[in-house]
Amino acid sequence: MAKVRDFFEDKKRSDSHPTVVDCGYQVVHTSEGVFLQLSTYGSDQRQTQKKTSQTLQFDRDHAEQLLRVIMSTFPGLQGTAMGERP
Left if phi > 0, otherwise alpha if psi is -120 to 50, otherwise beta: which for 80? Predict the structure, then answer.
């Protein structure tokens, strides 16, 4: 598990990953404040089903940074309601 400290654009070449996983989310209330927690779970080929593989936590400031990254990557999302596709 890790709290996200910083965002930066990674310029290395990358391709789409062949493995597909599920991602759960939680709102975590701590003495430090509220965090959005995203956890990925093992692929269908993993021996232990639904075991957490990686967990990331975002405080409000870092969630806002992530939102800006998402909006710049997918500008068509702006103005759409949850669940709708542009």
Answer: beta
